[in-house]
Write a structure and sequence with these properties.
The protein is α/β, with parallel strands linked by helices. The protein has eight helices and 14 strands. The protein folds into two domains: about 120 residues, Periplasmic binding protein-like II (D-Maltodextrin-Binding Protein, domain 2); about 90 residues, 3-Layer(aba) Sandwich (D-Maltodextrin-Binding Protein, domain 2). The strands form three sheets. The chain has a six-stranded mixed β-sheet, sandwiched between helices. Strands 11-10-12-9-13 form a five-stranded mixed β-sheet. It comes from Endobacterium cereale.
Length: about 250
């Protein structure tokens, strides 16, 4: 599902719309900025993407002012715990290990992990069928953990600083396959000049790879997550979620 971003921490204050809460609270929202189309820095250097727009919609629904903070994926949980921001909207999947440290909202979208590579070379994604292949995933992701636990005995596992770097390694021929989120990889395949790249095999289903993404907060902020869950339900019902969804995807990812 990432190491230091070139621009470490970037504050981008954004007014999400609507009235500010009575206590003038500013809700600080952390995301990565290197996981398109969910969160990325646009041509103006501003945080954009599905995660960012969903966060803005939730802020507007809750009538609070929002501030966005771009942080490296490998420190994003530490930064949440230390108080650098209040909420993480960064396509974070649930794991028991993570749940020991932070609290998770209801799911706000669903997707699966899948391999991408040369579809003429690779047909079978079993570890023994891929023996000897070089497989990459971004640091700190569930996909990286999965590869190291399931594929490392028969394959060379390459952990890159983030998912975009894993994609670049594939394009440059430094690795043979990458494992990542299917929706993220759709954008990569659409933009890639290499027609030979395609999804390999079926989406990976395994207890080590969760298919739901969640907004997260510190365990002490349970009330905040309750408000987030309520706001998620409202934007699902009033059509705002669908408008954001349709901006980035031709199908529902909820």
């Amino acid at each position: 599902m990432r190491d230091l971003l070139a621009t470490a921490c970037l504050l981008l204050p954004l007014l999400a719309g609507g009235s500010v809460a009575a206590d003038d609270k500013i809700l600080r929202i952390g995301t990565e900025g290197a996981y398109p189309p969910f969160n990325f820095l646009d041509e103006k250097g501003q945080l954009s993407g599905f995660d960012v727009d969903i966060a803005k919609a939730l802020c507007k629904e809750m009538a609070v002012e929002c501030e966005f903070v771009a942080v490296p994926w490998v420190t994003i949980i530490d930064d949440l715990e230390s108080g650098k921001f209040d909420l993480m909207v960064a396509s974070m999947a649930y794991t028991e290990e993570r749940a020991q440290r932070i609290a998770f909202s209801d799911p706000y979208y669903r997707s699966h992990a899948v391999f991408v590579g040369d579809a003429k070379t690779f047909l079978d994604i079993r570890p023994e069928a891929l023996a000897g292949a070089r497989i990459a995933a971004g640091a700190g992701t569930m996909q990286a953990d999965y590869l190291q636990k399931i594929y490392a005995a028969k394959n060379t596992i390459v952990i890159t600083k983030d998912q975009p770097e894993a994609q670049a390694e594939l394009q440059e021929g430094k690795v043979d396959l990458i494992l990542a989120d299917a929706i993220e990889l759709m954008s990569f395949l659409d933009s890639s000049q290499e027609a030979r790249f395609d999804f390999i095999g079926d989406p990976v289903t395994n207890d080590l790879l969760q298919s739901t993404s969640h907004i997260t907060a510190r365990k002490s902020d349970a009330a905040l997550l309750e408000n987030i869950n309520a706001a998620l339900k409202r934007i699902r019902l009033n059509g705002v979620y669908d408008k954001v969804n349709d901006t980035y995807f031709p199908f529902s990812i909820f």
